[in-house]
Amino acid sequence: MFKILTKIPNDIGLAFSGGVDSLAIAHFLKMGKKNVTLYHFNHMDEYSPEIEYKCCHLADLLHMKIVVDSFSGDIPKGRSIEDVWRRARYRFLRSCDQKIITGHHLDDAVETWVWSSLHGEGKLIPVESANIIRPFLTTEKQTFINYCKNNNLDPVEDECNKDLSLMRNYMRANMMEHLYKINPGLKTVIRKKYQPLKESLK
Fold first, then answer.
1. How many domains does the chain have?
2. For position 39, which CATH number holds?
3. pTM to 2 decimals?
4. Rounded to whole angstroms, how far apart are CA atoms 56 and 62?
5. Signal peptide: which range, if any (predicted)?
């Protein structure tokens, strides 16, 4: 089951892509009688209209309110499209007048730590920042996959996740498997790094 790092308020927002992570969390919060508002950010790429439609459909099935915002503007020359989208997405989430959960999990935390280590200093994804909370950073992605299967949930598949020109996707597809072979306990290492933070957030 899910490992939760910090308290989740009864009235809560959820960054919602419709993917396996956010869909599992939405259903889990619903089962926990939380009052959830979904927040979906449309990146305005070729796949976004269909993804937004599916997210709105899932919101109807879950009987949850959904708020949608969209990317506007151009991608500055020389800037990573991933970074521009991420910054725009967080501007949207931070403009919301409530706490917002994001679906970051342990696999994300490991990837972030490895990537930042390659650039000089291993960094953890923060559990809390401004109105954003990330309670599931010590829960493995496979837990979300299993939850969706066990509850007959049909997540949205984002074709952008297959685009290996995006650095995070390339790293996930070509690097992480080898790192886990070198150090099968890598997830345990990162999970332990969050333990002091969990204690401080009680």
1. 1
2. 3.40.50.620
3. 0.91
4. 10
5. none
Residue that has been written with the tokens 């007048």 in this structure: 97
| 55 and 156 Cβ atoms separated by less than 8 Å | yes
Give residue for tokens 């949205």.
156
| Token couple for 57 | 């459909």
Please report, for residues 45, 82, 95, the alpha-carbon distance to residue 79 in angstroms, rounded to integers and kept in the order given. Answer: 16, 9, 23
Give the residue carrying structure tokens 């280590």: 117
**CB atoms near residue 188 (< 10 Å):** 11
Rounded to an integer, what distance in angstroms lies between the CA atom of residue 83 and that of residue 168? 11
Residue 138 lies in a domain: yes
Which residue type occupies 13?
G
- The helix-helix angle for 20-31 and 141-150 (nearest 10°) equals 60
pLDDT digits (tens, 9 = 90+) for 54-85: 999 999 999 999 999 999 877 777 777 878 88
Contact 124, 38 (CB under 8 A): no
